[in-house]
């Protein structure tokens, strides 16, 4: 089932999400619905807060990036078929040179900006079977995971922009929160005027 993606301005996007355990109700159904929702919106990642749930769950499928000709063959290979569920994730370390990359977000449609992030991360997480892993990722893979991880920490990519960029984006972000934007996927807007 395709779920509505919550838009910029929705309070759940600003909450630090809570850990969950195996008893979380209908978790496998939620994960299936999140994959369907993400693919329907042509995303490469989706976090539970983006579908209105303040829980530490996000998923990533970087396969669409593997066709990018600007990437090295090694990076293309690492992105192709990378599909994972991250539960109760905790970034243990961020390393390497910070680099800029143009990011967007399904909760903030039609806004793309360069964001600086560290090149490498080490993350501890559980998969959908609650097996625990500690893994290190780098490059674009690390970036996608950092972006989704920020969502479970109540952080949006626009928070990482300069104050000038934030001021320039303010009216566009206000329009998004009011639903004054056209999107080709299901969304929920916090400040949209209710129509009868």
Condensed summary:
With 196 residues, the protein is an alpha+beta fold. Helix content is 26%, strand content 31%. The strands form two sheets. Strands 2-3-4-5-6 form a five-stranded antiparallel β-sheet, with helices on both faces. A two-stranded parallel ribbon has the order 1-7.
How would you describe this structure to a colleague?
By secondary structure, the chain is α+β, with helices and mostly antiparallel strands. It has one domain (5-188): Peptide deformylase (Peptide Deformylase, Alpha-Beta Complex), CATH 3.90.45. It has helices at residues 27-40, 73-79, 139-152, 163-177, and strands at residues 5-6, 45-47, 57-61, 83-105, 108-126, 132-138, 187-188. A five-stranded antiparallel β-sheet has the order 2-3-4-5-6, with helices on both faces. A two-stranded parallel sheet has the order 1-7. A hairpin with a 2-residue loop joins β4 and β5 (108-126). The chain is globular, with a radius of gyration of 16 Å.
Question: What distinguishing features does this structure have?
Answer:
5-stranded antiparallel β-sheet; alpha+beta; two-stranded parallel ribbon; 196 residues; Peptide Deformylase; single chain; 31% strand
């Amino acid at each position: 089932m395709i779920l509505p993606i919550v838009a910029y301005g929705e309070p759940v996007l600003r909450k630090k999400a809570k850990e969950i355990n195996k008893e979380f109700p209908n978790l496998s159904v939620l994960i299936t619905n999140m994959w369907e929702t993400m693919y329907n919106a042509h995303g490469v990642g989706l976090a539970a807060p983006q579908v209105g749930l303040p829980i530490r769950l996000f998923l990533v499928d970087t396969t669409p990036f593997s066709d990018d000709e600007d990437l090295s063959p090694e990076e293309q290979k690492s992105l192709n078929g990378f599909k994972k569920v991250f539960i109760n994730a905790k970034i243990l370390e961020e390393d390497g040179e910070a680099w800029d990359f143009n990011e967007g977000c399904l909760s903030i449609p039609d806004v793309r900006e360069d964001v600086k992030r560290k090149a490498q991360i080490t993350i501890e997480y559980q998969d959908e079977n609650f097996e625990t892993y500690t893994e290190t990722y780098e490059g674009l893979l690390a970036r996608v995971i950092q972006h989704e991880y920020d969502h479970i920490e109540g952080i949006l990519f626009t928070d990482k922009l300069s104050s000038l960029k934030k001021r320039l984006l303010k009216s566009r972000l206000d329009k998004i929160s009011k639903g004054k934007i056209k999107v080709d996927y299901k969304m929920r807007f916090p400040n949209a005027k209710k129509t009868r």
